[in-house]
Amino acid sequence: MANIDLDKMLVKIKDSQWALADIDWDAPGAEQISPEQWPKLKAFMSDLMWIEHVGARGFAAMAKKAPTDTLREIYTWFHAEEQRHANAEMALMRRWGMLDGDELPEPNINLRLTIEWLDRYSDDMPLEVLGSVIPMLEIALDGALLKFLLEEVDDPLCHEVFEKINNDESRHLGVDFHVMEMLGAGKLHQLAVKTVGTVFNPKLILGVLAYAPLLNKMRDNIVAMGLKEERLYDAMNKYERIGGRTEEGRRNPWFQIISQHGKMVVNRSHPYHRPVDALVKLTGYIPNRMVGPVPTWVKGLTWRTTA
Questions:
Q1: Helix (H) or strand (E) holding 148
Q2: Among 201, 259, 272, 281, which is most exposed with the fewest C-beta within 10 angstroms?
Q3: What is the rounded CA–CA span in Å between residue 282 and residue 213?
Q4: Three-point CA angle 239, 245, 248, nearest 5°
Q5: Mean pLDDT confidence for 126-150
Q6: Residue 229 half-sphere exposure toward CB, CA atoms < 13 A
Q7: How many contiguous H segments (helices) and E segments (strands) does the chain have?
Q8: Could you state, in order of their start, the residue ranges of all structural domains in the chain?
Q9: What is the pLDDT of residues 68-108, one digit of tens each?
Q10: Which of 56, 249, 50 has its CA nearest to residue 145?
Q11: How confident is the model at residue 193 (pLDDT cuts 50, 70, 90)?
Q12: Which residues, other chains included, contact 18 with Cβ-Cβ below 8 Å and sequence gap of 6+?
């Protein structure tokens, strides 16, 4: 197993904190956003902001299941960092004239369903599931979406903000993959039995029904913006390469499941997409009022520099 000293990592995390107040949000460069890219960038940033908050909720659930006090504290810091990322992305949206006052970006229906599931059931999910899904989302965020965004946007402040976010994400990924290997260190038959029991958990099945169409919808949206599909393949290959670099990592059944799922998601010609596309279309008919109010923890989001 690739060793990470979690106590030293915790110190590094605490020493690397930053705040929205550290950034000059009125600095020149906002005018670099062209009228042509503005509508698609607004939708992209809105989705990105909500994905950050989905990650924050995932880390909050993982903190409750962490096997050590040090890892629990690390996950608590990661929860706060993901919230700060979401707030910083909101501040960029406000800088670019995409939000008025304290307006929150409107999450699409698939994000709403995922947020609703997280609010209801994520605390009941085993660490093995969350600890393997979160790094896949973060590696796609770090390896594809953010790099693409920085290539498309000329505003220097955007680059400054995402340099800070990327530094945080690199620490998240280091811990994520370390934990994935820890989770694969048990006896193989015991890991398999536990995985089978979780796969058939109705709460997890509901989560998959929310999560799968969200991934498909976002995949197609970012490709429509100009992201080359090779970037997505590279991100999934990186997840498989790093997650499977050790025997313990390869023995983690959830790493194997998520690796295979990631390959299907990025390959648009795979038969997997037919039923999932149908789910995307079906969920598009769900009115927001049927989903219920946004969870109260979302109200912690703000672009204000006091956050």
A1: helix 146-152
A2: 281
A3: 10
A4: 105
A5: 82
A6: 11
A7: 14, 0
A8: 6-12+34-300
A9: 999 999 999 999 999 999 999 999 999 999 998 778 888 88
A10: 50
A11: low
A12: 84, 164
Show Cβ contacts of residue 65 under 8 Å, excluding neighbours closer than 6 positions. Answer: 126, 127, 130
Cβ atoms of residues 99 and 90 within 8 Å: yes
More confident call, 137 vs 282: 282
Query: Which residues have C-beta within 8 Å of that of residue 301, sequence separation ≥ 6?
Result: 49, 53, 83, 86, 87, 90, 104
Residue type, 240: E
Extract the tokens encoding 212: 């799968």
Structure tokens at 184: 């694969």
Q: Which CATH architecture has domain 6-12+34-300?
A: Up-down Bundle (1.20)
pLDDT at 307: 47
Q: Are 203 and 121 in contact (CB under 8 A)?
A: yes
Burial 32-57, CB ≥16 within 10 A → b, else e: ebeeebeeebbbbbbbbbbbbbbbbb
Q: Tell me which residue of 187, 201, 300, 298 sits closest to 248, measured CA to CA.
A: 187
Q: What is the pLDDT of residues 264-274, one digit of tens each?
A: 988 889 999 99
User: Which backbone phi and psi does 7 adopt, to 5 degrees?
Assistant: -65, -45
* The two structure tokens encoding residue 67: 């096997």
